[in-house]
Amino acid sequence: MTSVVHNALLQRARIKPWEPVIWLAPFAFVALFPNMAFLVNQMAIMALFAISLDLVLGYAGIMSLGHAAFFGLGAFAAGLFAKFVMPEPIVGLVFAMGVGAISAYICSYTVLRGSALTVVMVTLGVSLILLELGNYMTWLTGGADGLQGVDMAPVLGLFPFTFDGVTAAYYSLVVLAVLLVVYRRIVNSPFGTSLRLIRDNRLRAASIGINTDSRVKLAYTLAGAIAAAAGAVQTHSMNFSSLDAFAFERSADVLLMVVIGGTAWIYGGVIGAVVFTGLHHVLSDLTPQFWTFWVGLFLVVLMRVGRDRLVRPWTWFKGGSHG
User: Fold this and answer.
1) Does residue 267 belong to any structural domain of this protein?
2) In the predicted model, what is the mean pLDDT of residues 23-49?
3) Which range marks the domain in which residue 90 is found?
């Protein structure tokens, strides 16, 4: 029985033949339309951020309204590392992920006890505390002006960041692809299965011998590292870190992305980030003052008819929602 389960998990973790084609599509898109590089770059960064939240929300069942804390920590860790230690992006990325992982591990103790509402408030509070600390420590973060003067070296010493944003887009896409493979292995491992059990019923999971606290802490730590990677990539791409990285709006946006794409699904966060960022880009150009109205309307329709029937309007009024 154990071998059957192990083989099933391995099968789910294997990359399907069509997936590399999908992964190569954005690279080809940037090559064909370099003027869209900045948008693709932002989509890749937000997709990385979204899958980090889905690990704790979709798989572990932990609601977080302060996930921007780790995004912001990664952004500033990468910026400060580049400014005062060395400007190599890959080394800075690893450093930022380490900072995010350690911070998330410390914060994980705050989500082990209490109701879902308590966890939401605590995670939000941590993010707001970091925002105010960043605003107070102007000598380090630049305060409201942000961390400026961050000059990045070429990636691997070969690919300099260019003004058109093409290198930044490729860099973000590669980081997303690599971490998506790692993420896939995590959620389709016995550890990922145990997270689903904890999400569905923590008491039952504990009763069959699963150490729920240690697994929740590990999931939160991994999510913090991935979120910090997203923040670091943004700093590397923009040569700038802003306190907006810690803002509540950042946490709310990434939560919407996960909701749009679907929780506990490998590509849910990616699709949600692409849709949300694309809608933001298009609607803010068409109606700068009212773009949030249209995003809200889209969410209402999505929740009403279900994402599986959204592309089939003729089924909307046949039975209930299957979201």
Assistant:
1) no
2) 93
3) 35-247
